[in-house]
Design a protein that fits this description.
This protein has 6 helices and 28 strands. It is of the alpha+beta class and 372 residues long. The N and C termini lie far apart (70 Å).
């Protein structure tokens, strides 16, 4: 088997797919990329016990078909330091000796038999699917991933819940201190309500293979796995098993006190008043008709700070407390100039949403208050 491929295109695939490779896997072959050449199409595969990713590249030239496992880290590092140019891979028939040659030199190494690489299992039943634009899928993962938990006792909360309904998909994540629900309507679904939970690690890798285009991504899932097919990659992940919490029950519906404030101004003011206290400490917010007064205090070290920020406020004057880090995380993950905050009572959850959001999207963040 012999083929030539452009170094830049190959490196892009290796760096993206390398996030799936587990160097400490119990099966040594999983520390490798599987290269499969058929005709002028080279298929790359990377896998671990929970994920599997494939992608194809059209080669410049080829002689013969074949399959071989190439050590992942060494190959990526070698290609990374090459300038843009054709790179030739040569493996004699019946041999594991690989020669990689470029315009400036060559390298030799011994590879692993392709037969050692595990084949994907196809024992899924009741396969369901939907399609969503790349930009919408990226927006949904980006909007919710930060709120996923690190909870060993409730692993189902350690990911993003895809709640699929006719005509829309809701992305949901929560760590019990905050909850994010992001709805996207530029989808092709069917008339059933179903869902699955994607662990945050494969979700974070998924972000790296999605573009910002209106190209459609096909998403199919059964009882255990979910498959994302983008224009460049096919990505299979294990779902988190278990029943996701009834998140709708914690979203308040009667928060009639409304604040509109510049998001950047509020973030910067919070950062300043948090300088002398731990970021997770209480931030007190006093609400008036045209301003928010935010303050922090550390009695142990006799430190305090306060700031006044202009805003539009419709409602009665009140004082409410939030965890500084949770509020900061929520604001930093809203993509708008201004944010709307809705409250009903200092002891009830608050709602945060962007102002002027795209008509295809609907973002809502529920944040729990702290006792003052």
């Amino acid at each position: 088997m012999k083929f030539s491929v452009q170094s830049g295109e190959l490196l892009s695939r290796l760096q993206t797919m390398g996030k799936v490779i587990d160097e400490k896997a119990s099966l040594p072959a999983l520390a490798n990329f599987l290269f499969s050449l058929q005709g002028n199409v080279l298929t790359l595969t990377a896998a671990n016990s929970e994920m599997r990713m494939t992608s194809t590249i059209e080669v410049n030239s080829m002689e013969g078909d074949g399959r071989i496992c190439i050590p992942g880290t060494k190959l990526t590092e070698y290609i990374k330091y090459l300038p843009e140019q054709p790179v030739t891979f040569s493996i004699p028939e019946g041999s594991l000796a690989l020669e990689i040659s470029s315009l400036s030199g060559k390298s030799d190494q011994v590879c692993v038999p392709a037969d050692d690489y595990p084949e994907p299992t196809n024992d899924e039943s009741d396969i369901r699917s939907f399609k969503i634009a790349e930009e919408g899928l990226l927006a949904g993962i980006s909007a919710t991933l930060f709120a996923a938990a690190n909870d060993d006792l409730h692993p189902v909360m350690n990911g993003v819940f895809f709640d699929i309904e006719p005509g829309k998909v809701s992305f949901v994540a929560t760590d019990s201190h905050k909850l994010v629900r992001f709805i996207r309507t530029d989808v092709e679904t069917y008339d059933q309500t179903v869902g699955f939970v994607l662990h945050k690690k494969p979700a974070s890798i998924l972000k790296t293979i999605i573009g910002r285009s209106d190209e459609m991504v096909s998403v199919s899932f059964g009882d255990r796995n979910v498959v994302f097919e983008t224009p460049a990659y096919r990505y299979t992940c294990r779902q988190i098993e278990g029943q996701y919490p009834q998140y709708r029950t914690v979203i308040p519906s009667n928060n009639d006190c409304r604040i509109v404030v510049n998001r950047a101004d509020l973030i910067k003011a919070m950062a300043r008043v948090s300088v002398f206290v731990d970021a997770s400490r209480l931030i007190k917010c006093e609400l008036f008709s045209n301003s928010i007064n935010i303050s922090t205090q550390d009695l142990d070290f006799s430190c305090s700070a306060n700031e006044a920020i202009p805003c539009e406020y419709e409602g009665r004057e009140m004082t409410v407390g939030f965890g500084g880090q949770h509020l900061s995380d929520a604001l930093n993950n809203v993509n708008s100039q201004d944010v709307e905050i809705r409250l009903s009572d200092p002891s009830k959850p608050g709602l945060i949403s962007p102002v002027g959001e795209d008509e295809k999207s609907d973002t809502l963040i529920v944040i729990m208050p702290m006792r003052i």
